Amino acid sequence: MAQTDTLARLEATVLSRRDADPASSYVAKLNARGLNKIAQKLGEEATETVIAALAEDRSALVGEAADLLFHLVILLSARDVPLAEVLAELDRREGMSGIAEKASRPS
């Protein structure tokens, strides 16, 4: 099964739980606490991912990376940004030098 299928299923799950009862859904609970809390949680997960990478702990890195992607999808959902839009941006950048891509951004 393609990884994009996994991400699409994750996005569908997050969307379906976004407005659920916060007592029964972590996604709903996080959304009820607001965008600042969602962003803070994403930052925490990013930090934990970096720590796992630097510790050279492969299984911890895999787990933290999964947490990071999960929380990123929650943040995107909270801002009504479809994952397809992010994937389209990655497709647009494919084959472009990272240096050239960054230089093409408006300042």
Give your account of this protein's structure.
- The longest helix has 21 residues, at 58-78.
- The N and C termini lie far apart (39 Å).
- The protein has 6 helices and no strands.
- Helix 1 (3-17) crosses helix 4 and helix 3 packs antiparallel against helix 4.
- The mean pLDDT is 92.
- The protein has one domain: Helix Hairpins, CATH 1.10.287.
- By secondary structure, it is an all-alpha fold.
Q: What count of domains describes the coordinates?
A: 1
Classify the beta-strand content into a percent band.
under 5%
Query: Mean pLDDT, as a whole number?
Result: 92
Q: What would the principal axes of the Cα set say about the shape?
A: globular
Q: Please work out how many helical segments DSSP would assign.
A: 6
Low-confidence stretches: none
CATH-defined superfamily? MazG-like
SSE string, helices as H and strands as E: HHHHHH
Helicity range? over 70%
Number of strands: 0
Label the CATH architecture: Orthogonal Bundle
Q: What would you call the structural class?
A: mainly alpha
| Rg estimate, integer Å | 16 Å
Assign the CATH class.
Mainly Alpha
Mind describing the biggest β-sheet? Answer: none
GO molecular function: ATP binding; phosphoribosyl-ATP diphosphatase activity
Pathway: Amino-acid biosynthesis; L-histidine biosynthesis; L-histidine from 5-phospho-alpha-D-ribose 1-diphosphate: step 2/9
GO cellular component, one term: cytoplasm
Keywords: Amino-acid biosynthesis, ATP-binding, Cytoplasm, Histidine biosynthesis, Hydrolase, Nucleotide-binding
